[in-house]
Predict the 3D structure of the following.
Amino acid sequence: MDVITLLKKDHKMVKNLFEEFNNLKSSKIQKKADIIAQIKEALTVHAQVEEELVYPAFRENRSMKEQVGEALEEHHVTKILLGELDALQPDGERYDAKVKVLYEYLMHHVKEEEKEMFPEAQKRLSSKRLAALGEEVEARRSELLEGNEDGGQQERENMEEQDREAREDMEEEGGLVIEKEKEQRSGRRVA
């Protein structure tokens, strides 16, 4: 299967999981948590194969470098949203809202990939290259899902730590701004 078809299949599966989540009654707390766990695993594997295999192949074409850069940043924000979702309880008041924001953000990313990036890749890469890339992605996905990779757990933990640090940095920056505003209001000079 060529890589574009494979990635579109992933997009559809994740969209279906979000729709299943949205159709649940609010009392189905455990089912919500289970679906979000499935979404998180699917997105984590999908992002990793794109970042390791797909985007580097696309980036070889100068015309796609900007699109790939934007997609990588969108992956970063998605990881932050997933981390924030992990910190919430499925029955908490912000949980469903966070899931909705994640869904809307992902659908924006999917639309850009499917309407802009993938057609550009189909123009720039041969069908043989796209098929070979699809095979590489399927093999890597199997490794990730089976957990048969050396250091895979450590890599995931490192990625989670980086995302946690990024969230903390953003919180600190936000706290610094608030502190400066308080000091300015109280008439103290801010260095």
